[in-house]
């Protein structure tokens, strides 16, 4: 059972969250729930980020209204989710998630996978190791807060009096910049191994420290990360590497053992040569810079930045053994994707785009390029040039090609250094050699 304790309530004048910072759709939703007599809170990451004066990525609302009551109150509501019914409110250009307060699994009700063959499906289900498979019970606001992952993610903003409510140590951890799970870290990471990746992500993106005892347990449990569902791991991978903190994420993933558990071959390559880590750091720094400049990298580009150098190296070894360059790269990519299938479910189209980015490179390097205008129209072109830029900046390779393409793509055609049609003679066509007829035949004609 969850222990009840007095929450810390910070009145409006004691904190910095203003309604002006709250998404207008979220605000309207909170007001409507409140006006119909329901408790309505902003919860999770948005409260954390507002207190840190960061822009939240999304706004989540939690309430004591049941999914059915929410549906009756909002015409734009659709109920989703099999495990737990959630309300999605559809606005013109966004979807707002409204959830009914939930509770964590009470110990005496938890069924394990093997014993869970009752007449009614159990509301809570864990596997033999304690990983939660189903978690489906309404709860109080306090229970809802305490089932969340980290103390800094368990804060609530109450629309009734504009106060901030803290049922754990979220506010003091926020001040000290500490990532601390709610409850026993061993239990919480075992229930849901994805929380280990979330800990790393928040530490890297918010520049927080993972509480030392938690870090030790995270390192000890890192090898269990492949137990999480592959589709969730892919989603989390995107959040880890796409949003501006890829470089610190790589370090924490590597130090904790999460990287080796998810990508053993890649981790071996990374540690096979001290240059590899330096190269990847620079690659990921460029990726983070892209994000900061307002162009977040596509999933395929981040995969290329992370895995491209190892794949190219592997392909080069095969190429030296006599396999054509293109085929060698295809094989290296296919092996990587096969390895991924077991842990991180990368969609086939993203894997294919990664392969295309890499196999496009020789055509971009070729100076002058053949039919550049038609190359530009290929769907992977932008990512391929971004990868060329990464290689030019991190390995100093093919700078001339990059300059050529930058000039070609700029609006000023005179900036093109070596427009092939003007400056270069067209590539000579190889003449097919005619086989000479044998003399005897010639003589006979
Ligand atoms: P961001 O949206 O900035 O990536 P977030 O903390 O808001 O970070 P979400 O995935 O939007 O992350 O989740 C919203 C909230 O749901 C979290 O703040 C946390 O309270 C809770 N939550 C999310 N994932 C888990 C989990 N695996 N275990 C427990 N609680 C979770
Ligand atoms: Mg969020």
Provide an overview of this structure.
This protein has 445 residues and is an alpha+beta fold. Among the domains are: 1-103 and 138-176, 2-Layer Sandwich (Beta Polymerase, domain 2); 263-420, cca-adding enzyme, domain 2 (Orthogonal Bundle), CATH 1.10.3090.10. It is 50% helix and 11% strand. An eight-stranded mixed beta sheet has the order 1-11-10-2-3-6-5-4. A three-stranded mixed beta sheet has the order 7-8-9, with no helix packed on it. β5 and β6 (95-100) form a beta hairpin. The longest helix is centred in the C-terminal third of the chain and has 22 residues, at 299-320. The structure holds adenosine-5'-triphosphate and magnesium ion. Residues 44-45, 57-58 line the site of magnesium ion (MG). Residues 44-45, 57-58, 60, 148-149, 153-154, 192, 194-195, 239 line the site of adenosine-5'-triphosphate (ATP).
Brief digest:
The protein is α+β, with helices and mostly antiparallel strands and 445 residues long. It contains 21 helices and 13 strands.
List keywords for this structure.
single chain; 445 residues; alpha+beta; Beta Polymerase, domain 2; three-stranded mixed β-sheet; globular; disordered C terminus; binds adenosine-5'-triphosphate; binds magnesium ion
């Amino acid at each position: 059972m969850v222990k009840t304790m007095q929450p810390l309530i910070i009145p409006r004048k004691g904190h910095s969250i203003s309604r002006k910072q709250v998404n207008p759709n979220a605000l309207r939703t909170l007001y409507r729930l409140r006006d119909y007599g329901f408790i309505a809170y902003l919860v999770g990451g948005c409260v954390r980020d507002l207190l840190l004066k960061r822009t939240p990525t999304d706004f989540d609302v939690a309430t004591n209204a049941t999914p059915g009551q929410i549906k009756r109150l909002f015409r734009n509501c659709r109920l989703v989710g099999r495990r737990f019914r959630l309300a999605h409110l559809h606005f013109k250009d966004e979807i707002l998630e409204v959830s009914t307060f939930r509770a964590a699994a009470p110990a005496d009700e938890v069924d394990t996978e093997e014993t869970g063959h009752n007449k009614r499906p159990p509301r809570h289900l864990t596997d033999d190791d304690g990983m939660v498979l189903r978690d489906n019970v309404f709860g109080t606001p306090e229970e809802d807060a305490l089932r969340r992952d980290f103390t800094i993610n368990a804060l609530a903003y109450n629309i009734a009096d504009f106060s901030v409510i803290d049922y754990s140590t979220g506010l003091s951890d926020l001040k000290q910049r500490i990532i601390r799970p709610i409850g026993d870290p061993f239990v919480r990471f075992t229930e849901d191994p994805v929380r280990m990746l979330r800990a790393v992500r928040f530490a890297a993106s918010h520049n927080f420290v993972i509480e030392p005892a938690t870090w030790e347990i995270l390192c000890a449990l890192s090898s269990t990360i492949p137990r999480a569902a592959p589709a969730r791991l892919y989603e989390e991978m995107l959040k880890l590497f796409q949003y501006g903190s890829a470089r610190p994420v790589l370090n924490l993933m590597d130090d904790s053992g999460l990287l080796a558990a998810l990508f053993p071959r890649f981790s071996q390559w990374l540690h096979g040569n001290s240059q590899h880590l330096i190269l990847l750091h620079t690659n990921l720094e460029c990726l983070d810079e892209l994000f900061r400049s307002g162009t977040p990298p596509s999933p395929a580009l981040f995969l290329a930045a992370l895995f491209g150098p190892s794949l190219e190296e592997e392909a080069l070894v095969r190429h030296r053994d006599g396999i054509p360059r293109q085929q060698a790269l295809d094989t290296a990519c296919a092996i990587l994707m096969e390895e991924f299938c077991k842990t991180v479910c990368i969609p086939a189209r993203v894997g294919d785009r990664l392969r295309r980015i890499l196999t496009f490179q020789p055509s971009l390097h070729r100076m002058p390029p053949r039919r550049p205008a038609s190359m530009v129209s290929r769907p992977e072109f932008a990512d391929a040039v971004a990868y060329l830029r990464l290689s030019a900046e991190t390995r100093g390779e093919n700078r001339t090609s990059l300059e050529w393409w930058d000039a070609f793509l700029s609006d000023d055609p005179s900036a093109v250094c070596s427009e092939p049609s003007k400056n270069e003679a067209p590539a000579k066509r190889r003449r097919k050699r005619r086989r000479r007829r044998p003399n005897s035949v010639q003589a006979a004609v």
